[in-house]
Amino acid sequence: MTTPSPADSATDPRIDQYAAELYSALRERRTLPRLMERDPSLTIEDAYAISLNYLGRRLRDGETVVGKKIGLTSQVTRDQLGVYQPDFGFLTDWMRVDGDTIDIDRYKLIQPQGEAEIAFVLKDDLNGPGISADDVLAATDYIAPCFEIVDSRIHDWKFGIVDTVADNASCGVFVIADARGNPRDFDLETIEVTVRNNGREVGRGVGAAALGSPLNSVAWLANTLGEYGVSLNKGDVILSGSLVPLIPAVKGDVFESDVAGLGRCTVRFV
Questions:
Q1: Mean pLDDT over residues 107-130, rounded?
Q2: CA atoms of 95 and 64, how far apart (whole Å)
Q3: Distance CA 75, CA 54 (A)
Q4: Which whole-number Å values give the CA distances from 73 to 24, 185, 200, 211, 241, in the listed order?
Q5: What is the dihedral of CA 4, 5, 11, 15, to 10 degrees?
Q6: Which of 58, 69, 159, 263 has CB atoms 3.0–4.6 Å from 154's, for a disulfide?
Q7: Is 215:181 a contact under the CB 8 Å cutoff?
Q8: Contact call for residues 203 and 259 (beta carbons, < 8 A)
Q9: Digit-coded pLDDT (tens) for 74-95
Q10: Which of helix, strand or coil describes residue 75?
Q11: Beta strands in the chain (DSSP E)
């Protein structure tokens, strides 16, 4: 099953309320106070239910799920945001940017930041729990350099794990490079990525930054979502987490991510 029905999580009126607020914030391009400040009793399970309800509203708008993502995998990103465990969310076709140009206004981005990642595209389903890194490797069709442009609907990026899970792991949009590689041809723990903004190097990292390996990140995602009855499916795009610090983006910026031996992903903000 790709996505459980949002109706399954609608028994608590708070779930519907907070999902509606996040959806309105997305469409109206504004931010909200932290959910946990308003309701400290919210749990991770509540946050996931909110995210499903929020996703359901997007699906009713005509969007379709094309993959999943894990975030907050690297220590440097966790230190930047003050959240010390991974989050997870869904990717839709509306979030995927064709080409290398992101129109900040068109995509209603509020406070965008770039994350240089490695995207996995699956050739087989992964049904957790019990998924290992070797299982991920066997199920992967190809990998590609990518940028995820994260964009929180929470004021000033000041949130906790419940807030970001509810907000679909702060996902904005994503760009996948044309370059593709067979993951079996790379040591994904030591693979190097170098990131530049307007020609100036702003970050450098290795695959081990993402929970020890991007393969571990995808396995964690499969196992975590599996506990909720959700699989990673054949054809899914999986974003495996940032390997370098977050990079704030403004109009006119040009981000480049060079993944050694794999290729380059370029993003231009207009």
A1: 95
A2: 10
A3: 28
A4: 28, 23, 24, 6, 6
A5: 80
A6: 159
A7: no
A8: no
A9: 566 666 666 556 778 999 999 9
A10: helix
A11: 65-71, 87-92, 101-102, 113-122, 140-150, 171-176, 192-197, 200-206, 237-239, 247-248, 254-259, 263-269
Residue type, 104: I
SS3 190: coil
CA distances from 199 to 6, 117, 202 (A): 43, 19, 9
Digit-coded pLDDT (tens) for 2-14: 444 444 444 789 9
Confidence of residue 159 (pLDDT cuts 50, 70, 90): confident
> Distance between CA atoms of 84 and 117, rounded to whole angstroms?
19
CB 85 within 8 A of CB 74: no
> Is residue 1 pLDDT above 50, yes or no?
no
Q: Are 189 and 213 in contact (CB under 8 A)?
A: yes
CA-based nearest residue to 73, from 180, 254, 246, 211: 211
The predicted model gives 235-249 an average pLDDT of 92
Positive or negative, the Cα torsion across 210, 111, 232, 119?
A: negative
Q: What is the pLDDT of residue 5?
A: 46
* Closest-CA residue to 168 (of 51, 24, 2): 51
Task: Please tell me the predicted confidence (pLDDT) of residue 84.
Answer: 55
Instruction: List C-alpha distances in Å: 229 to 126, 225, 226.
Output: 12, 7, 5
- What is the spatial distance between Cα 92 and Cα 102, in angstroms, rounded to a whole number? 16
Give the three-class secondary structure for 208: helix
Q: Mean per-residue pLDDT for 174-201? A: 96
The fraction of the chain above a pLDDT of 70, given in percent, is 91
* pLDDT, average across residues 100-114: 95
Is the previous residue joined to 129 through a cis bond, with omega within 30 degrees of 0?
A: yes
